[in-house]
Amino acid sequence: MSMPLVVPERSAAHRGLQAAGIVALGALAVWASTSNQFVLGQLTVALLYATAIAGLNLATGYTGQLSIGHSAFFGLGAYTTGILVASHNWNPLVTLIPAALICFATGLLVGLPSLRIRGINLALVTLALAVAFPELVDRFPSFTGGQIGLDISVFQLLPPHWTGISVADRFQYYYWLSAGLLAIVLVLCATLTRSRAGLAMRAVRDRETAAAAMGVNLAWTKMATFGLSGAITGVAGGIFAIYLGSLSADSSFTLTLSITLITGLVIGGVATTLGPVIGGLAVYFVPYWTENLRQGEASELIFGVVLIALMFVMPEGLMGLAIRLSRRVLRIEPQPPARPDGRTGPPPPNGTDHPAARDSGPAAAPDHRQERNTA
């Protein structure tokens, strides 16, 4: 058998490979759910980081809008959920809706500067947002708890009765809640990036002038993508508040979190579907493992060396490396676009293969010789 094995896109074999991959990921998630409470807590935070990175990937990876302020969206979603639950006794799951809407609106506002600036200048604008968020939280202690923090009663965060999960197994609930959100976000991002809107996002990222010449609405594409990116990150922050039960902007939603999310995006693979998952697990567990190897500043040094080594060996990220290696064994061949006559493949020159063209060709011309013989 020759390598690589070529599989046509959207064929039965391709669908089978996709189904096998989904089943494998589902089995892995079920196996991870059997871990103890400590590991489940770690996985919950890592999956929420992965969801936030997936939101960042839409703005930075697919649209080219470098953002260093997504920690503010994460914190805004968390505080929206925390305030509504602690002060107004809302159902924790229902609070995810206003958290998404508020972060979407904030993302639209933050995306306004992207209409005029991009690159490092836009990054500085979002950097100001990340730096200002903890200060804004501290200035409104009556709502946010200020520097003291916001505490949510554990009885308000218990699993709903319809889940059948007991209080002792609430970490299972938090894990499956974060895993379910991540799965929905990945499907949403994969569908979006493969649509016409996804093509517009890539066009804006690669060549703005050419995209505008082809009819892409630059303003709408940039702002809508930034808003959706903020909404996804905000919902992840809302579930983070449900899991944590205690919020402090000075310790959880600082600039360090923004750098963590960007690092996870680069490690996992920019503009890839599963890259955020790998990046979220990496930025959470790699520092934990290096800290176990050596306490103190030495652990940070080890983590830095690991990051440099990864970027040197795999500049395209872990997912990019996996895709590049897998193409030596298996290659998915894109299907050509459908033609107006329902066939596949490129259209023939001058449209001679069209049914109307065939009917109007030389074979359909009247036989003038027969007319002369009759005369």
Notes on the protein architecture:
67% of the residues lie in helices and 3% in strands. It is built from 17 helices and 4 strands. α8 crosses α10. The strands form 2 sheets. It has a two-stranded parallel ribbon with strand order 1-4. It has a single domain, classed as ABC transporter involved in vitamin B12 uptake, BtuC (Orthogonal Bundle). It is mostly helical.
Task: Please describe the structure with a list of short key phrases separated by commas or semicolons.
two-stranded parallel ribbon; mainly alpha; single chain; 375 residues; ABC transporter involved in vitamin B12 uptake, BtuC
Break the fold down into its secondary structure elements and pairings.
Layout: E1 5-8, H1 12-32, H2 37-62, H3 70-88, H4 96-111, H5 120-139, H6 141-144, E2 150-151, H7 170-193, H8 196-206, H9 208-213, H10 218-244, E3 246-247, H11 249-252, H12 255-268, H13 275-293, H14 297-313, H15 317-326, E4 330-333, H16 355-359, H17 368-374
